[in-house]
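ok trying again, last paste got cut off:
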Amino acid sequence: MTEYIAQCRAGRYDKIVARVDGDSVELAATSHGAHKMETYLDTADARTFARGILALADEVDGGEVEPAEDSRPKVGDLLRVTKDYPRHAPVKTGDVITVSVTDYDSPGGREDHVRFTASGDGPNDYQWFVPLSAVEPVIDEPVAPTTTAVTTPTREAHLRLAAELMGDNPYSARSLIELADYLAGENA
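nice, full thing came through this time. structure:
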């Protein structure tokens, strides 16, 4: 049978016990183990009484504080790197990474780190640890992760890199596209 016991803070042998008694809630008071009295409440009156006790407790201490929402990064969150090569991870200040794993609640986990997979690595490859002190949430603008972070570079990124590599040389658009395809691993 479920019981709830309220122990007197002034007299350690005085208590009130609440428990189910048929279709009622029984409140029984004892002092030094001796029965003093009991009251039987129907369920509506028991709920009203319980709300009243909570209201009185709120008057005493201002009420219970709601637990703070967990603001730590979650899997899938975008984070901007604020320090070059934190823990030797292949990222620099300004790069954007996507969180792939958190170990916050794991036994022996690292509450102050998140993990991500480096660009070009598969989901089962090494996941780099980055301390939370070396990243910040990306909240100011929608940003796609940079090429040095978790995502594979886009075709456009390869084309831009090809143009940079070719510089002022008078190559055709076809040459640029062929070089971009080569950089992307196509036709290699």
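cool. The longest helix spans residues 43-61. The chain has three domains: 3-61, 78-151, 153-188.
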